[in-house]
Design a protein that fits this description.
Layout (H helix, E strand, L loop, with lengths): L9 H4 L2 H9 L2 H14 L4 H25 L3 H8 L2 H33 L6 H46 L3 H9 L8 H10 L8 H8 L8 H31 L10 H13 L1 H37 L4 H7 L5 H12 L10 H13 L2 H14 L11 H25 L1
Helix pairs in contact: 2-7, 2-11, 2-13, 3-9, 3-11, 4-8, 4-9, 4-11, 4-17, 6-7, 6-13, 6-16, 7-11, 7-13, 7-15, 9-18, 11-12, 12-13, 13-14, 13-15, 16-18, 17-18
Length: 417
């Protein structure tokens, strides 16, 4: 049962939820929103908002499951779903770890190369950021990690919002693009990819463990958690929309074509032309803060998943598993070492954006799995806590998310392979 009621305040709400937002916003979000704004202007702002809302629905279901049962989503899969599910997740987790760590290190290296005008190469910038991320997580603890993440969120939010406000010259078109869904001719596949790319994928499971770090248990935290998650995905939508607004003015209004590989350097160059040196630096700093925050969030949270899965596979009791997922445990630290070192060879591929694209393909395959399992766990499993099961509306939304993201995943795989 819940031991105490949460004290609700904005500063407290901006805790694990804001960390989820910072972790979920990565290089893929920046690239896709930039290319979308360059190709179609502001008519697809609604797609970013829709993607953030769908991720809110999934995240709320994951959090509600834990409040009702005291179990993480991974524990729920192991206990209530067929045995092959945990093995499938384990294999997928390794593949995802390799692709996401390679993507984030390449992106942080690219961000640092932009900031230093090439004085620090993209490859060595990637290596340095991976090692720094590992050291920060190893020595910092959760409280220090959360404070650093909030600082990076402030930097990325201020930098990108500053650029968006000073570049905005079509406010009514932006409002129309947000409130009146439109799919330009030939953009159907891209729209689905844009919706699917907003926010995180496996990192949504991290909220379970950050809830434990914040001692969030029981039904008394339900409203609090919903507010926390709402702040997370509102920030995600605002950040992604701001990137698209900047790209609209920098490229679409100017009639310039843009590819994925050109997204980050040409955006910085365009802002330098329009807003001067400060604009170029502001965007470069905002991009770097976004991808470094995402890197730190993944480095800190994904080892929880490995440690939790290790405890399940080896047959540990619930108490032993909770000890195994502490940030000081051996399974956690071995997983942290793996995620820190495995991306280093990919830093020297010379294809940073291609690595990011591979990551988006791998990630798109996970969301349908989460939607399907939340449909089962949050409807069929009996709960002792007075936390509501899925409503009819939530179930309909989850079915829609399942179909939508399965389509996105199929299209991404077919397009790349």
């Amino acid at each position: 049962m819940n031991q105490h009621k949460p004290t609700v305040s904005f500063l407290k709400l901006a805790g694990p939820g804001l960390v989820v937002a910072a972790t979920g916003i990565g290089s893929g979000d920046v690239v896709s929103a930039t290319v979308g704004g360059a190709r179609y202007g502001v008519v697809l702002l609604w797609a970013i908002a829709a993607g953030a809302f769908f991720k809110f629905v999934l995240q709320e279901g994951i959090a509600r499951w834990q409040l009702a049962t005291g179990k993480t989503a991974v524990e729920g899969w192991a206990e209530y779903l067929p045995a092959w599910v945990k093995w499938y997740f384990g294999v997928y987790l390794v593949i995802w770890t390799v692709s996401v760590s390679a993507s984030l290190t390449n992106a942080t290296g690219l961000g640092m190369a932009n900031l230093t005008n090439g004085a620090l190469s993209q490859s060595w910038g990637a290596v340095v950021h991976s090692l720094i991320g590992g050291l920060v997580v190893f020595y910092g603890g959760y409280d220090s990690f959360e404070k650093l993440m909030k600082t990076l969120v402030g930097i990325m939010g201020f930098s990108i919002l500053f650029c968006a406000i000073f570049m905005l010259n079509q406010p009514m078109a932006a409002v129309q693009g947000l409130l009146m869904p439109t799919i330009p001719a030939g953009s159907g596949t891209y729209v689905l990819s844009l919706i699917g790319g907003v926010g995180g994928s496996i990192t949504m499971l991290s909220y379970n463990y950050w809830m434990r770090e914040e001692n969030m248990r029981g039904s008394g935290f339900l409203s609090f958690v919903r507010g926390d998650i709402a702040i997370a995905y509102l920030f995600t939508a605002i950040f992604g929309g701001s990137i698209m607004l900047i790209a609209n003015d920098a490229f679409f209004v100017q009639g310039q074509a843009l590819t994925n590989a050109q997204a980050v350097p040409r955006m910085a160059e365009a802002l330098g032309t329009v807003l001067g040196t400060f604009g170029r630096i502001a965007f470069s700093v905002g991009f770097w803060a976004a991808v470094f925050a995402s890197l730190l969030g993944v480095w800190q949270s994904v080892p929880y998943l490995y440690a939790d899965l290790y405890g399940i596979v080896t047959g540990m009791s619930s108490e032993q598993r909770q000890a195994a997922v502490r940030v000081t445990s051996t399974p956690y630290r071995l997983a942290l070492l793996f995620i820190t070192l495995v991306p280093l060879p990919f830093a020297f591929t010379g294809q940073p954006i291609q690595v990011v694209i591979v990551y988006t393909v791998v990630s798109s395959l996970f969301v349908p799995f989460v939607a399907a399992t939340m449909l089962y766990l949050n409807n069929r499993v009996k709960w002792t806590e007075p936390v509501p099961h899925n409503s009819v509306v939530t179930n309909l939304l989850l079915v829609g998310i399942l179909v939508l993201f399965a389509t996105v995943g199929y299209q991404e795989v077919a397009a790349r392979f």
